[in-house]
Amino acid sequence: xxxxxxITAIVLLTVLVPITLNAPIGAFGALIGxxxxxxxxxxxxxLRLNGAGPVAYALVxxxxxxxxxxxxxxxxPLYEMAAIFWVLAGPYALIRKPTLAAGAWRAFxxxxxxxxxxxxxxxxxxxxTQGVAFxxxxxxxxxxxxxxxxxxxxxxxRHKLAPSISPGKTWEGAIGxxxxxxxxxxxxxxxxxxxxxxxxxxxxxLGWDRAFVALTVLVxxxxxxxxxxxxxKRQAGVKDSSGLLPGHGGVLDRIDGLLPVLPxxxxxxx
Length: 270
Fold this sequence. Notes:
Strand content: under 5%
Largest sheet: 2 strands, antiparallel
Distance between the termini: 43 Å
Mean pLDDT: 93
């Protein structure tokens, strides 16, 4: 299993890193488009679309992405709709746990998914136009939250965060992830390391105190995104969103925490 994970990670890095660092924005956007379409396919599968339904859903997402680009649709309204979804529907789902068998909720998630993935593409591409370091720092928030949560949870985890949704997650782990983000964010902002980054932008736009609050909010919603997908998988009766990434699960398993972080972070920066 570990060998498979390592091989998959090496292949992904071999593809993603050169394109992210060196490719023109068009090529980078095409790569992110593929990622988004595959994520939409997995979303359709988790919502139990029958037969070719997940493929059709992914095609709808892809067509929406293309049309939004050529028609010059404004990005900010998409960010706002995606952020509203995560701020309102995210906690609602985790508290009330509506089932996918509930027709209205399922229909809502089918519509909301298109908005979320469409916004995701625009958010990543917009972030990339601000620089490689900036887009990587957005990813780093989620990576640090995950890594910090893993090690803190392993060492100190005692109190379950959401036992009925994801039994392995603990409050201690979540706090450890938050500490990792705050410490690295403060170091990056105070040293202007590879500026501009999300951390330097937060301090520049919001000041140190509100930047601290902003990073805390992002960590909270990275956890919300993770738990939201875990709830979908649990209700769909699957361990991973797909087997597209051997040893790692699916695309959604890798970007679930990023989906809410992106729109909220960019909206905070105005």
